[in-house]
Design brief:
The chain has a two-stranded antiparallel sheet with strand order 1-2. The relative contact order is 0.15. The longest helix has 18 residues. The chain is of the alpha+beta class. The chain is elongated and about 35 Å long. A hairpin with a 2-residue loop joins β1 and β2. It has two helices and two strands, in the order αββα.
Length: 79
């Protein structure tokens, strides 16, 4: 019984949206908004918690910040 539960949890966690560009299992996309602003969109599947989706957006924001030569980012709004 215990092994079956562990296997089930592994399969469910493997189905959650991973950190990747948008694909059939979900992911992120970003769009330049002019200047140094970007809109980041996270498409999560049903196995992904809202906290994980937020984490994906923050990691992508940090990557865009560093690639733009900046050290900080600011969240202007969420949907």
């Amino acid at each position: 019984m215990r092994l079956g539960l562990i296997g089930f949890l592994f399969l469910v966690s493997a189905c959650a949206t991973s950190y990747q560009s948008t694909s059939f299992t979900g992911g992120f996309s970003d769009f330049p908004m002019g200047g140094n602003r970007h809109m980041i969109k996270v498409m999560a599947n049903g196995y992904t918690s809202p906290e994980r989706a937020t984490q994906i957006a923050y990691v992508r924001a940090a990557e865009l910040t560093v690639s733009g030569g900046y050290t900080h980012f600011l969240i202007l709004g969420t949907l």
